[in-house]
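Section 5.1 Outputs to date
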Amino acid sequence: MTHDISHTGHLDPLISVCIPAFNGRDFIGAAISSVLAQTFTDFELIVVDDCSTDGTIDIVRSFHDPRIRVQQNSSNQGFVSNWNAAVRASRAPLVKLLCDDDLLYPDCLQRQAAVFQGPDAGAIALVCARRDIIDPDGHVVIKNRGWKRGQGQINANKALRTIVRSGVNPIGEPLTCLFRRTDFERCGGFSYPHCYVQDLAFYTALLQIGDLYVLSDSLGAFRLHRNSATMKMARSQGQQMAMMYRSLRRLPHSPVQPQDIASGIAKARLYAILRRMFCAWVLRPRH
């Protein structure tokens, strides 16, 4: 259950930016500021706080913008349920989920909304962009990370096979994506049983509805820090990816082939090790 503690008078926005928050005091102010700095202004910003205990909600309340709505859960729901709650609080036809420690660059919403307003929008279920990887202080440690296999409109079956063969999440974290609210409900929201691949599993569900559209520029930043969900779940990455690949193979008329799964699993195991090494290097103590 949730209850509103503020509301906006901005009616019928085109995009809902949804921030599910939990103990995000250190970074949520920057996340909100990055949304309010968008060149595209026809949006609402929804923050759903999952019973934070660190003063996160006070930082959210310090922003005074009529496009912001804030909700607080009456009990802690966990991050997947809170992701769903944040999206289901939206009222715009297009939705972006932004974790409370990540950033959008100023032209992100404008660039992605334009795709869904284009002539081929009806065939597209998911728009993604590349992103930069930043450290806790906001310094870029990797630039322009994301989908490598072409740009523009990508056939859904081709995209699914590319995802499986990659061994990673080639689309990126939720900040990189824009999708329709109706398609979110049609897919059942974030509902995959294994947390680490929750976002990627949702993308693959969308790709059973329509095509992928890739923008080749970095339109946001994903932040690595010790308390991030990515760090907490990194050790289960390879196993969860393998289970997801096998579930895609079981779909009716699945484009995923056994050789795709074998390639993906081998890469996922390797990349899980490399990812932990990279995160340890980025977050190493500095004197």
